[in-house]
Amino acid sequence: MTTKDQAPAVASSKTLGGDAVGSGVAPWMALAAGWLVPGAGHLLLGKWVRAGLLAASIVGMFAIGVALQGKVYSPNTGDPLDMLGFAGDLGAGALYGLARLLGWGQTPVLVAVADYGTKFIVVAGLLNIVAAVDAHSLASGRKRS
Hints:
This protein has helices at residues 27-36, 40-44, 48-67, 80-90, 94-102, 112-140. The chain is mostly helical. Helix 1 packs antiparallel against helix 6, helix 3 (48-67) packs antiparallel against helix 6 (112-140) and helix 4 (80-90) crosses helix 6.
């Protein structure tokens, strides 16, 4: 029994399919879009400002890394640190594919500035993974905006 002062029970923010009520976007779609294109997961959820800030940050860091002649890692089974670098680079989604397609970051790192560029590229990929997971959490209702 409820009184006038008690708020009515609010329905759960999840449906059977795992979609957040009101967003209309499946969590896996927000995750995949956010990984493939920086900020796209938040854009699908209607978080325009957050999407723009994430896209500008990730694309900017990736562009700075390429401009500093940073290395774009390729898949290999050699050095464990190279494999971790590849995992970080792959997190950039389509930016990684574009870099590999255009041959960016394929020259050997000969100066210290290029090593900083390599770190910028890897961190851009890692930030993109965090942003994609954040979009998934928002779409699934685990996190409020």
